[in-house]
Each structure stands twice: as structure tokens, then as C-alpha cells.
Amino acid sequence: MRDEIILVTGGAGFIGSALVRHLIFETEASVLNVDALTYAANLSNLAAVVDHQRYGFEQADICSAPDLARIFARYRPTGVVHLAAETHVDRSIDHPLKFVETNVLGTATLLRAAFNYWRALRSAEKARFRFLHVSTDEVYGSLEDSGAFTEEAPYRPNSPYAASKAGADHLARAWHKTYGFPVLISNCSNNFGPYQFPEKLIPLLVHQWAGRVPHADLRAWGERARLAFCRGPCACARDDSARRTHWRMLQHRRRQSSCATSTLRA
């Protein structure tokens, strides 16, 4: 709908930027991207939409309650898609508290800000509002040699990353059950595709194949099967020009800049 304003957290990341581009080019919704611009974020991922009249950007941390309160009051979104998170398992092993801070405390701070905004809305606006919390299937642990997870599977996280996302899931559910807040939770498998930061398995191996980075020891990845979905036009790997552009995007060093705001629903 033309009057929709979707707040996307983590919109400068790999999946977030794909969602932002989709919303701008395939729908009539306006999009506000809220991103702290940490190491895996890249505003170049959004070069195609940066000047679009329905796109806005705020550099902000989801752990900052004052920033979130200001953003909700200024832009008045009709929905939230919460993608902002620390996501790399190996990094979570080295820095577990950073994952707890962003994924658990950050999600709780965002839920509280969104709930405070939602409960002040008129009845019709309340009924329309949704909060989508995007999680991972890793909260369910490891599969055996066969089978699949379902929404009824028990939570058995096996890494600090998975545990932090499980905690965020529980908070999202609690806000729904306790306050009646309209929360949805999705638990997706791995994604890969253009613009992905080359620390995950598939983009890492692609760039090893291209001779860009040292070869990794694949034994460290374990023996479990992994399911991954392509997010974006993977056929670009067959096009030299697109591949070179993709590499430049990945190597782009984020410019140091002050918080940027837009005129979207100012």
C-alpha cells in the first residue's frame, strides 16, 4: 500500500539491503533503514535506492532507547522488520557478550520502543501494525542425519550466537503474550548471495576460488549438512562485470560519517 512505512533494522546488511531494494522496487511502501553500520554493513549495497523519495536512513543502534523513541515519533512506521543482529557463529565464540548485548538487549530495547509507540496509536492503526522478528533455525540446535525442524521443535542452541537469538525469540514471544503486541517470528535457514560479507562459508569459498583470500581449513566447518537459500540474482556470478562490481562492494570500506537522516515523513 502506498501509505505504508516499513522500518527495517539492519537494512545496510546483506539480507536487509536485499529487503530494502525489494520493498522500494517491488512495492509502493516507504522504507526507513535503521542501521548502526557495524563491520558487516555497507551503504554501497543501497546505492540503487539511496536517492529514492520513498527511502530514508538513520544511523542508530537498536540498544539506544532515546534514538529509537525519536525515530518512532518522527517517522511513525506502520510496521517493523527486525533484522539487525550479530550473526557469525565464530565471532560469537570469541565475543559472546557482544552478541548478548545486540541480539538480546537490543531486541528488548526495540520491542519496548515499538510497543510504547504502538499502544499510543488509534485503534485502526493498531490493528494494522505488525512487528516481524527475523531469527534463525540455529535456535533449534543440530539435526540428525535426516529430518527437519518445525515450529514445534524444542529450543537447543549450541553456540553463543544461537543462544542470543533464542533469547531474542523468547522476548518477542513474551511481548506478544504479555502485552498483546502483534509480533511475528520467522526462523529461516542460511542465506547467501550478492553483497554478502565474505566471512560465511559460501561467499568465503567463492572468493577463495577467485584467488582473493587464503584458503580455509574446511575441517573446521564440521560434518553436519547445511541448507542455504540464495538471496538475490546469483546468476551474476556468470557475468564478469557484475562479479567485479560485487567484489568492489565487498571490499568497500565504510566511510566515517555522522548520523544521516532523510526527509521521509519528517
Question: Summary?
Answer:
The chain has helices at residues 14-26, 65-75, 89-94, 96-119, 123-128, 160-179, 201-209, 240-251, and strands at residues 5-9, 30-35, 55-59, 79-82, 130-136, 183-188, 190-192, 228-230.
Query: Topology as H/E string?
Result: EHEEHEHHHEHEEHEH
Strand content: 5-15%
Number of separate domains = 1
CATH class: Alpha Beta
Helix content range:
25-40%
* The CATH topology: Rossmann fold
* CATH superfamily (homologous) name: NAD(P)-binding Rossmann-like Domain
The whole-number mean of residue pLDDT values reads: 80
| Low-pLDDT residue intervals, each spanning 5 or more residues | 225-230, 233-266
| Category by helix and strand content | alpha/beta
CATH 2nd-level architecture: 3-Layer(aba) Sandwich
Cα radius of gyration in angstroms: 19 Å
Largest sheet: 6 strands, parallel
Instruction: Tell me which oligomeric state these chains represent.
Output: single chain
Give the strand tally: 8
Strand arrangement across the biggest beta sheet: 3-2-1-4-5-6
Describe this structure in words.
With 266 residues, this protein is α/β, with parallel strands linked by helices. The protein contains 8 helices and 8 strands, in the order E-H-E-E-H-E-H-H-H-E-H-E-E-H-E-H. It has one domain (5-192): Rossmann fold, CATH 3.40.50. The strands form 2 sheets. It has a 6-stranded parallel sheet, with helices on both faces. Strands 7-8 form a two-stranded parallel ribbon. Helix 7 links the parallel strand 7 (190-192) and strand 8 (228-230). Helix 2 (65-75) runs parallel beside helix 4 (96-119) and helix 4 runs parallel beside helix 6.
